[in-house]
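FORM 12-B: Structure-to-Sequence Request
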């Protein structure tokens, strides 16, 4: 999915995203593929520092992974949050 925020996942958008991940109650992992399309190692999306370290900009592709009860609903909600401008 593409990140829609003008500033990517920096400062406030990253904090809002991490809070939503924590509120989901699920272990969510996020990764950002490099220019060759190879995915970096997923990081814990409950960690603001890990999310900021990915250096996700506007329009960058990211991948979210989780499992557990209501995982599909949680991923859909988080994906919509990331796509929002």
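FORM 12-B RESPONSE
SEQUENCE OUT:
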């Amino acid at each position: 999915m593409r990140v829609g925020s003008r500033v990517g996942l920096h400062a406030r958008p990253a904090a809002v995203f991490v809070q939503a991940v924590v509120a989901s109650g699920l272990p969510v992992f996020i990764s950002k593929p490099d220019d060759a399309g190879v995915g970096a190692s997923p990081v814990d999306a409950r960690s603001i520092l890990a999310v900021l370290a990915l250096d996700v900009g506007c329009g960058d592709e990211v991948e979210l992974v989780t499992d557990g009860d209501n995982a599909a609903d949680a991923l859909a909600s988080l994906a919509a949050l990331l796509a929002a401008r």
